[in-house]
């Protein structure tokens, strides 16, 4: 996946690292990142927190939030990204949570996915996705979209830093 190579290139270019918190993708984000040459320069590691309880125990997601809204929620995704970033001492954290199917979960239909990025500055960013396809297609597209979100954030972050360093032009 070329998105993984792009992300790693941007991370290395800025001397940053990333960690992944995965639920529905079950480690596929880590697979994509580690498949790219030079991955060890930018990828710290991952936590596959498939069980809802592990999102709280390992990633620090608020237990009340999980009890009230379930694991398929935009705020849960943001907290997962922030939690893995902190736990694995990375500059950036990414997270995936959602319903790959075949059955709905937490009152959410199949194809409901939230991907999130938490970085060194700001509150983070989450994207709500409504994906079509079978389980494998939903998981694959979730990986692509979280890496795309991170790539966009890294590119934007670099532009913001350049603007600051060059007097705001």
The CATH homologous superfamily corresponds to CinA-like
- Spatial shape: globular
Could you give the order of the helices and strands? HEHEHHHEEEH
Question: What percentage of residues falls in helices of 4 or more residues?
Answer: 40-55%
CATH architecture: Alpha-Beta Complex
Q: Structural class, from secondary structure content?
A: alpha/beta
Helix count from the secondary structure assignment: 6
Gyration radius, in Å: 15 Å
Strand line-up of the largest beta sheet:
2-1-3-4-5
CATH topology: Maf protein
What is the top-level CATH class?
Alpha Beta
Describe this structure in words.
The structure is a single chain. The protein has helices at 2-14, 28-35, 52-59, 63-69, 74-87, 135-165; strands at 18-22, 43-48, 92-98, 112-118, 125-130. Helix 2 links the parallel strand 1 and strand 2 (43-48). The protein has six helices and five strands. Residues 159-169 have low confidence and may be disordered. Strands 2-1-3-4-5 form a five-stranded mixed sheet, sandwiched between helices. It has one domain (2-164): Maf protein. By secondary structure, it is α/β, with parallel strands linked by helices. The longest helix has 31 residues, at 135-165. It is globular and about 40 Å long.
């Amino acid at each position: 996946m070329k998105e993984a190579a792009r992300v790693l290139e941007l991370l290395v270019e800025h001397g940053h690292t990333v960690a992944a918190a995965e639920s529905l993708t079950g480690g596929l984000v880590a697979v994509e990142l580690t498949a790219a040459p030079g991955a060890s320069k930018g990828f710290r590691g991952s936590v596959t927190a498939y069980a809802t309880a592990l999102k709280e125990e390992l990633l620090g997601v608020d237990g009340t939030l999980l009890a009230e809204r379930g694991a398929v929620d935009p705020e849960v995704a943001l907290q997962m990204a922030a939690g893995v970033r902190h736990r694995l001492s990375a500059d950036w954290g990414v997270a995936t949570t959602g319903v790959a199917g075949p059955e709905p979960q937490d009152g959410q239909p199949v194809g409901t996915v939230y991907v999130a990025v938490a970085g060194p500055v700001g509150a983070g960013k989450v994207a709500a996705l409504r994906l079509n396809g079978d389980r494998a297609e939903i998981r694959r597209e979730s990986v692509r979209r979280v890496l795309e979100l991170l790539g966009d954030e890294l590119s934007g972050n670099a532009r913001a830093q350049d603007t600051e360093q060059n007097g705001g032009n």
